Amino acid sequence: MERVFTGPQPARERLRAAAHEYVGFAQARPEMFRLIFRHDLHRGSGYSLRVVWLPLLDAMAAMVADAAPAVDDPREHGLLIWTHVHGIATFAAGLTLEPVLTLEPAGLDTQIDSLVEKAVRAQLA
């Protein structure tokens, strides 16, 4: 994610790439994706999702501000993008979208890519 966030591409492209990267990770490594959010297992370990999440949200807000200077609250729009993308990733990691979107597993990736694009675009309009 750091590579995508700090890349030389325009902010809008980096937002899209980060969203696709996140969902791609969830699809490729669903068990790891689920483990990251198992707060019950992390208790007492010193790991805090906030340590990862807050800088991610700041980076998202900066990219939103750069990609869509007219938005009223870049942090809020960054959060909205990420909640949409996280929801898509959660569904993709569990293949929950498969019966909803298509019966063909090969078509799932195309549908998920489209959902990711729409989630990002909706907050930058």
TrEMBL record:
Keyword vocabulary terms for this entry: Transcription, Transcription regulation
HTH-type transcriptional regulator MT1864/Rv1816-like C-terminal domain boundaries: 15-97
Any Pfam family: TetR_C_33
Domain of life (superkingdom): Bacteria
Gene3D superfamilies: Tetracycline Repressor, domain 2 (1.10.357.10)
SUPFAM superfamilies listed in its UniProt record: Tetracyclin repressor-like, C-terminal domain (SSF48498)
Record InterPro entries: MT1864/Rv1816-like_C (IPR025996), Tet_transcr_reg_TetR-rel_C_sf (IPR036271)
Protein name (database record): HTH-type transcriptional regulator MT1864/Rv1816-like C-terminal domain-containing protein
Species for this entry: Kineosporia mesophila
